[in-house]
């Protein structure tokens, strides 16, 4: 006896030949009814993650007044996932400016301490510095050429500082080029070099640190009673345009980052009254300052760094 294998009902072929047409049709329909159509299940976790990423990108764009044309009016969908990832790459690179600035400031401390020891006459000299084609350039309207050259050599002899400045520069350039790629207008080699030169002049670091400190409003205008645990007044709004001013700023910044400060009030002392990272807070909050280094048509209503 030969057998015809059905997924649910083995039937002898000799018996099937004896069935009437109606019975055979009913058997075929029953067999068809058991066929299951494969359905790809929805990955709810992945879909939720994508929705959250979309919202996060939109929030960052809105906080910085940036409006990418390709995302205007677009709804979250699988078709826009790749495009969203490109914009996210640009934003992530630019968003590292806060931690990169902190790395520059931290690396600068020993050089400024060295300046105070070797050239106390320059302790309060006003200057600033920028990235300069892989090196550091000192700018000043008051230093003599000889003193400016000495200070520039001092900063460039600090390998960690030079590398931190270059990383800051490179992340800004990478964010710019990633945005251009997302917009479908990738930069040529010549254009990338031009963007790199523009990034060199975008930020004067001591001025940037001063803006970061001022954005915290610590101490507040009506509350100047915050001290570090050594008894020094915490002041993030002081001028950072000299070695002495910068080192004072850094002592305050480190105190509030560790929460190692005390607010002295008539009703008692409150320890750890201020606790935050001045570098990341002032650049990621979207409220005070930003470094929007994107193609010109991508930025609307943002606060440029002078």
**Mean pLDDT across residues:** 75
> DSSP helix count?
11
Number of strands: 7
The helix/strand order is EEHHHHHEEHHHHEHEEH
Describe this entry's structure for a reader:
With about 300 residues, this protein is mainly α. Among the domains are: about 5-35, no CATH class; about 95-205, no CATH class; about 210-280, no CATH class. Helices cover about 50% and strands about 10% of the residues. The chain has 11 helices and 7 strands. The protein has helices at about 15, 20-35, 45-65, 80-95, 95-120, 145-155, 160-180, 190-200, 205-215, 245-260, 280-285; strands at about 5, 10, 130, 135-140, 225-230, 260-265, 270. It has a 3-stranded antiparallel β-sheet, with helices on one face. A two-stranded antiparallel ribbon has the order 1-2. The model is unreliable at about 1-20 and about 300-305 (pLDDT under 50).
Question: What's the quick description here?
Answer:
With 306 residues, the protein is mainly α. The chain is 52% helix and 8% strand. It has helices at residues 13-17, 21-33, 44-63, 81-95, 97-118, 145-156, 159-182, 189-200, 205-216, 243-258, 278-284; strands spanning 3-4, 11-12, 128-132, 135-139, 226-228, 261-265, 268-271.
